[in-house]
């Protein structure tokens, strides 16, 4: 019925999902600007920092223009986009996957184990990534099976599995993986050199591309592949159709011969695979040492916001993820300009709230349409 | 619906503009002050911390205190001469270091060993950027990096002597002592071994117990352990366990408030105030002080004088890097005198304090098995 009303009306600006996403982000930044002004700082610096995280800045130490902030933006975007895809994929099937954080950690753990236990060989990173994807898929799949077979709320299950993943990681890293040389409570043995993600580009130093000091690793390519895979599976395959149908209306899907149990399990497994890949990319691409995780990295949770802003669509999530990457990159830049670091968190929070507001709006809209129908019937 | 939204947005904007207008004046004032400060030829420094920032009341706070001491301007230069950059998670470390280098700071301060790998990677690519790191001595040596390492066993020796002499002054026969650690490891072993050596220098056959909570943030474990030890006649407990140690102080405070003669010893910064109970008295007899601020001041001076040379710098009693606290008035004069004597003896080279369980066991074969580990 909701679809019907939307068809009748010409697409208004507020009605359009894309326009609201843009509006929501702008509104978030606008209110952020006002907050910066209210605490007595120069709001222009906020925009300067966000601008710099796309175009780079003048490096006083090196005496030339540096694209390193853009490199940071795109590097941060890798886990944001992948976790956003994870959340978005489940969302399209009508599931709320809060477990991207746990699936991310399990992926990271699998990559970590392979990178530390297997002696270095060229192409080891591929093995690490494969294990990470599988581990993430299993961790997500568990929730899918629990939901499909036993009707256990995926929200509760994923929250609990996040904690299990965190402590399982710590347990394995502390007691099973080979010990580090120093600080055994903080890091395991170093990652094998063959497992580190190579830089993108031509000139390579220490396994990382140096284009000035612009740094980006091959995880970015994997992220782009994941975006395309998301779009292809969701929009172009029979599996994707059955998943979307389940998402629209589970009962109707079942009536038309779609196995909703398997759809839900598959969707959660694929959703987990994206997050698992994110974990591997962060460990092998950004961290590059055998960190024993201390607390959650929060990429999984931010993925929820990314997916919401991106409307759970492949391209939308890519753009939203890069935007969040830029905000994250600006987080450090704006601190140098005396803007309180909390402002970025506030902007991120505001975007989420405004997005939620939009969802609330949809509910109100649906309710009003119902009332209208009732009136007409009378 | 559109109308409602438009109205809401307008209201929000109006609200924002109003609150913005109020503060306009102060923002201008700030900007002016900042440009004034830029005129001076002072050196500029950035301190890079993890998510907790400089308000962690401990390690980072001490490093920041050092910066404020150096500039002596009560924080007026924050944002121009010195600034704090926090990271949200460990994959921010390297980007933050690079961003800081891009701003042309004279010195970058990183606190804690978690920064180790990132600092190593950074110093390789930025050979002209001066960096210091605290609590680390194993990174590859480069000309632009000073690694500050603390000899905590010396400070711990002093508080061990203080605890033992206090027991002696109280006339306690065969006093027992306890040590509570966080996660076992070589660093925390230095605290335990120094403390035990200090006690044994007064009571060569004292009974000493140790316990590791395997966590830096589990005060309830320390509290339970402290209760059972105090109940079984332990006189004083030294906890070097981060947040976990709060449990020990809590229990000591409860028991002292109930009139029992037991003590806790604080660590890193002066924890006297954490132990205050009824009547303004404190259950924290003394604290092992680890002065992180000494390192930041030292590095800043070196940068200013142009004497910055990469390498490892040891912070110990000789340069006032570790010490003990005399904040508690109940710490007896005999104890203070004995500690001062011990300090003088260490400075004169008459006493060397062991760093490892192995060295301690060689000196005191009669000592029971300890839970501390040497690696």
Question: Briefly, what is this?
Answer:
The complex is a heterodimer of chains A (378) and B (375). Chain A has 378 residues and is mostly helical. Chain A has 14 helices and 4 strands.
Structure characteristics:
heterodimer; A: 378 residues; mainly alpha; two-stranded antiparallel sheet; 14 helices; globular; B: alpha/beta; Rossmann fold; 2 domains; 6-stranded mixed β-sheet; 12 strands
Query: What is the distance, rounded to the nearest whole angstrom, between the alpha carbons of the first and last residues of chain A?
Result: 18 Å
Would you list the SSEs of chain A in sequence order as H and E? HHHEEHHHHEEHHHHHHH
CATH topology of the largest domain in chain B: Rossmann fold
Q: Going across the biggest sheet of chain A, name each strand in turn.
A: 1-2
Secondary-structure class of chain B: alpha/beta
Sheet/helix structural class of chain A:
mainly alpha
Widest sheet, order of strands of chain B? 2-1-3-4-5-11
| Oligomerization state | heterodimer
Low-confidence stretches of chain B are: 1-7, 9-40
What is the H/E string of chain B?
HEHEHEHEEHEHEHEHEEHEEHH
Counting DSSP E segments of at least 2 residues, the number of strands of chain B comes to 12
Biggest interface: chains and residue counts? A-B, 54 and 54 residues
Instruction: Sketch the major β-sheet of chain A.
Output: 2 strands, antiparallel
CATH architecture of the largest domain in chain B: 3-Layer(aba) Sandwich
**What is the domain tally of chain A?**
2
Q: At the first level of CATH, what is the class of the largest domain in chain B?
A: Alpha Beta
